[in-house]
Structure formats: C-alpha cells, structure tokens
Amino acid sequence: xxQKYNADEKGMYGRFGGAWIPxxxxxxxxxxxxxxxxxxxxxxxxKEYLQLLKDYVGRPSPLYYxxxxxxxxxxxxxxxxxDLNHTGAHKINNTLGQILLAKEMGKERIxxxxxxxxxxxxxxxxxxxxxLKCVVYMGALDIERQAPNVxxxxxxxxxVVAAKSGNQTLKDATNEALRDWICNPEDTFYIIGSVVGPHxxxxxxxxxxxxxxxxxxxxxxxxxxxxxxxYVVACVGGGSNASGTFYHFLDDEKVxxxxxxxxxxxxxxxxxxATIALGDVGIIHGSKTFLMQDDDGQIVEPYSISAGLxxxxxxxxxxxxxxxxxxxxxxxxDQEALDFALEVTRLxxxxxxxxxxxxxxxxxxxxxxxxxxVVITMSGRGDKDMGTYMDRFNLK
Amino acid sequence: MNRIKQLFRDKKDxxxxxxxxxxxxxxxxxxxxxxLEDAGADIVEIGIPFSxxxxxxxxxxxxxxxxxxxxxxxxxxxxxxKDVRSxxxxxxILMGYINTVHKFGIETFAKKCNEVGVDxxxxxxxxxxxxxDNYKDTFDQYGVSNIFxxxxxxxxxxxxxxxxxxxxxxxxxxxxxxTGAKKGLSEAQLxxxxxxxxLNLQNPALIGFGIGDHESYKETCKYADxxxxxxxxxxxxxxxxxxxxxxxxxxxxxxxx
Lengths: 396, 257
Fold this sequence. Notes:
heterodimer, A: alpha/beta, 6-stranded mixed beta sheet, 4-stranded parallel beta sheet, 17 helices, 42% helix, 18% strand, globular, B: alpha/beta, TIM Barrel, 12 helices, 9 strands, 47% helix
C-alpha cells in the first residue's frame, strides 16, 4: 500500500494529523506508537483477532445487492452490512483490535468515550469478553438521551461516568477520557472509537476497520466478476466506518470515494455537523484537522439528529482526502437522512441507523448511470434510533 | 537581559501564580495582576480560556468557561494588556492551548506578546518537535520565550533537549495529573526532582501541580527554583468576597511573609 493517503511515520496525512498533546500524555503515546504495529502484525495477534471477527462478530458481513433500491435509482446498489455485526455496528471491529493490543501491553483498565453509546457498548462488550475493568465517559446530556445504551453498558459491567463539563456531549466525554488517561498513565489503555485523536490512533483505528473494504473487494469480485465498484460510500462523523470502507481502495483511483457528512438543519443554519463544508484548520483532541470553530478558535458545538455524527472535527485522513480531492464530500440534512431511513426500510426491509441513513443521500446527489455500481456501507442498525423514528414517522 | 532571566538571577524561591484571564469578571485581569505584584508574587501566568482544556481539572475548567461567557478572547486580552508595562514589572507569561493561538495566527500572536510586554508563553499541547520545526524562529524573532512541561515520565534525553532549545524556565509537572488534582509529595516525586536536579540544566525550573499553601510551597522550593500555584488561587478568585484583600493575604500566607 502506498503512503500517499496514509500516515507517515510522524502520523501526518499531508498537512493534517500529528500528536498535539500535553507532555503528560507523551510517554503513553510514544509507547503506543512504538509497539502498535509490531504487536498487531504478529501472527499470534492476527490469528486471535481474525478468529474473534469470524466467530464472535459474525464476519464476513454480507455484501447485499439491493434490488429494489437499485431499480428506483436506476443503478446498482450494494449494501455492506455492518449492521449485522454483533452489537449492531462497525464499532466492534475496532474495539476488539484495541483490546487485544491493550492485553498484549499488559494494561488492566480500559477507558473509552462515547456519544450515542455505540462505541461505549462495543467497548463494554469487549471488556466483558476479556475480563477487563471498563470505564466509559459519556456526556451527561447524552446519558439522559440514550438510556437503553447506558443500561446495556452497565449490564455488561462497565462503569459509566457522566462528563459534566462544556455542553456535556461527545467532545466533552473525549476531554474527560483524556484527563483520566493523564491521571492514570501506567495501568490504563484508552480505546478511542474513531479515526481521531493523536497519532497513532487515526492510523490504528483505520487498520482495524479496514476489514470492511478488504471484504468489499473480495465480495464484489465474487458477485460481479469485476475488480472494482465505481463508488464506495459511507457516512462520516469522526470517520471510522468511512476509513474502513475506503482503506483498500485508496490507491485505486478509478474507485470514487464518497463521504457524507451530517449537515443537521442545513450547512448554514448554525445547527450542523458539516465539518468539511464549514471547518477551517485547527487542533482538536490531539490532531490537526478541519474543525468547527469560531473566530477566537473556540470549538463550536455541532448538531445533528444522529448522535454518532455530531463531532466538531473529522479524522485527519479525511481532511487530507479532501485536500487532495481523492474523496468526494457530500452532506445530508436531518430531513434527507430521515427520508432515506424510511425509504430503505420500505424498499429493502432493513432499518438503518440514522448515521447510515445519511450515506444514502449520495444516491440523489451523485450522477449515477444504470451501469454504475455503488457500494454503500450500512454502518449500523436502527434499533437504537427507534425513539426518533417513532416521533418523526408517527409510529406510536 | 530579559525579565525572566533577571528574576531568576536576583531571587530565590520564586512564586509563580496562574489565573485565568477574564475571571471572575471580564475586566479583573489587570487589577488582579497589580494586586499580585504588590503582594509579592514573582511571576504570573495568565491563562487564555479555551473551550476544551484537556489538561485542566474542574477548577480551572470552570474559570475558563466563566471567562468565555464573560467575553474573554485573545483580542480582548491583548487589548487589556496594552498598557500593562506601565503598571507591573514582573515577568508575564501567557498560558493556553494551541488552537486559540493557531487561529489567532502564530506571527500575530508573537508580535502582540512582544508589543504589550509578555515575556513567555506556555502552550502545553504544542509538540516540542513541531515547535522546533515551525514555531521557534517566529517566537525568537519577537523575543518571546517558550516554556515546556516535563513530567515524572519524561525521559532524560527529552528533558535535556527541551533545556537546550529553550530559554525561559522548565515547568516541572509534579505528578501524573491534570491541574488541581493531587496534594503532598511522595517518595517517587522526590526521586524525580532529584533526577532532574542532577541533570544540571541551564534553565531554572519551577514545580507546578498540587501546590496551594505555604507548606507545599516551602517544600517544593527545596527541590527547584520555585513553585507554581494555579488551581488553589483560581478557587480563591471564584469564592472571594473581598477579591483584592483576599489575594493579598493568600500570597503573603503562601510565601510566609
């Protein structure tokens, strides 16, 4: 794999990335940087990881030809079914990889941040499986909004700690997790849920999610006989399912990479999470990237109907893919995502997560022909969003 | 000779005080500074509030949130500081997170520091290598010192490199913690202070994190050129009924004068 779109040894993707962290985190990050590739490339690690992905997660996840959706949009739509994974989303691919790494490094305590609770549940699941202590930081506001996931984490044995600073959502939970790590540098491993944070996290998480595109490549060839789809599409908040969807296609420039951001009530509404559309360059959670900030460099609270996409930054690799025009960035409003959630459900009998519903907006915004093939990553299932769907679709 | 160097040459047991600009009220920044100098503080670190202060504990987080609500920003701060050199003589340091400075513009920031008479800056999340590659020349050009943190986990090689490439003082974080977290000195900390002292650094060193009263100040002064008090002072600012009177008695009490 070429280095054109991946991190260099300093963790830079073009002008983005790096490790902008206080000295208190430096030894932890340096240590992780030193060992992560050596450990995850060992035969022992790979064997254990792949076995878990197969028997515990249920991989490979199917690549499904969505016939009725294809007819409606007069093209060929394939869905990569990450929603069928154990715990209901792609997040588990990453948490299992990181927890095996943590174990190998002799860590005894796991911390994580979570927004809607999907990464928190995936982390609590991995900790239950491995018998490790688990502390999940979650914004106090999100704890109120996502009661079922909080209960799942607790049932799995995790301690859920309310982040009460700032606006009490994902970015504040991330700050609290980083503070915990500063105070517990010896025994604790921080499992970050997306391709964000200081190097080596963006690269490490992308590697663990790259199984998505590895499978797409194999399955697409098996199904169609052709080597490459014309488009691969994913929604992007921090960007972990998009990174996984793009990874093995980065150097195949004939495959168009499409990322769909959440624009909330509209890019210019002030209530949005469209980081690429709005953001300028700054530093958030240890990484230089595009982010939403005001004129004084204060980070702006994002908004989206989908809790998994309302992050004010974006993974540094995605910022670089934007810079180099390697990826196409689109955005979808709350309403567009809701419309597609219902349409996909009615045409295919699959209820998508609100996050994943954003990705389908590409079907409207790309100029697709009947010969094109489009792979859309269905990053998660919609069970967790039934509250929103009940309200918005009058299902009560 | 710059003000930082002169101070460390002339005085021992330096007391450095941290507080957040624009807290408790927007226009308290400079009056607090004047009271601190009157009362006997030797250096002041003025915090630039940031929305996401990931190295700070609850006390300083809260002060930053309040300051932002009060309307504090780098533009407002430099405006407040424009005549500060007619009011105080001690070395002034600005301390903040890199994003606010990055957004303001590195060169503009360094130039403004020079214009108003700020002697040094502490940007805890500016990586040292990044500083050497892309920031140092600009700050040097405007005569502004960059001060870096070291911790008990920082390798000796890195401490030496930081010492070699900077010219203010070394900020020794006393333990693995966010600001305001721990109190008292352990065996491990004393060993760490010893280890650093044996390196014979060219720069003076101040110890910070977990220092908030006369006892801890005196104790840390045994192992370094002085001590930094942050959260304990910010807490006082948040609770004080007679702001300037209480600042004075706090400084006198910590210094034991």
